[in-house]
Amino acid sequence: MIVLLAGLALVVAAVAAAYGLSRRRRRAGTVLLIAVNALLLASALLVVLLVLTGEPAQAAAPAESGDEANWAALLGAAIAVVGSSIGAAIAVAYTGSAALAALSERPELFGRAMVIVGLAEGIAIYGLIVAIILIGRS
C-alpha cells in the first residue's frame, strides 16, 4: 500500500512539474508528460504480466475453463476503449481547431461546428459500446 501511495505521489508531482514547465517551456513540459505516460503504460503492462503469470491466491476460487477467454475479452475491451479514445482525441483536436478558426470568422456557424466536433466524439462512444459487448460475452 505504501508503494502505491508513493507511486501516486510521484505521478502527481511529475504532472505538476510538467504543468509548470509547459507554462514556461512548452516542449519540455510535453516531453515530461510523454515520459510520465510511458512510465504509466510500462507499469500497467508489468502489472498485467504479473497477474497473468502469478500464482492464484489460496482463497481464490478454482480456475474455470473460461478463464482464458475471460482475460482475452477484458484485454480486447481495454484495447477497444484505449484505441477509440486516442482516435477521438486526435479527431477532436483537428476538428476543434478548425471549428474555432471558422467561428472566429463567422460566429453563426456555431451549431454546425459543434455537430462536427460531436461526431468526432462519437468515435470514443463506439469503442465503449464494443467494450461493453465484449465484457458482456465473457
In short:
With 138 residues, the chain is mainly α.
Describe the structure using short key phrases.
138 residues, mainly alpha, F1FO ATP Synthase, 2 domains, 4 helices, proton-transporting ATPase activity, rotational mechanism, ion transport
Overview of the molecule:
It is a single chain. The chain has two domains: 1-53; 65-138, F1F0 ATP synthase subunit C (F1FO ATP Synthase, Up-down Bundle), CATH 1.20.20. The protein has helices at 2-24, 26-53, 67-105, 110-137. 86% of the residues lie in helices and 0% in strands. It contains four helices and no strands.
Please write the CATH class name of the largest domain: Mainly Alpha
Task: Indicate the CATH architecture of the largest domain.
Answer: Up-down Bundle
Query: Can you count the helices?
Result: 4
CA-based shape = flat
Structural class: mainly alpha
Q: Spans with pLDDT under 50 lasting ≥5 residues?
A: none
Would you count the extended β strands for me?
0
Nearest-angstrom radius of gyration? 21 Å
What is the string of helix and strand elements?
Answer: HHHH
The name of the CATH superfamily of the largest domain reads: F1F0 ATP synthase subunit C
Outline the biggest β-sheet: none
Strand content: under 5%
How many domain regions?
2
Return the CATH topology of the largest domain: F1FO ATP Synthase
Overall residue-averaged pLDDT value = 76
Set down the secondary structure blueprint.
Layout: H1 2-24, H2 26-53, H3 67-105, H4 110-137
Helix pairs in contact: 1-2, 3-4
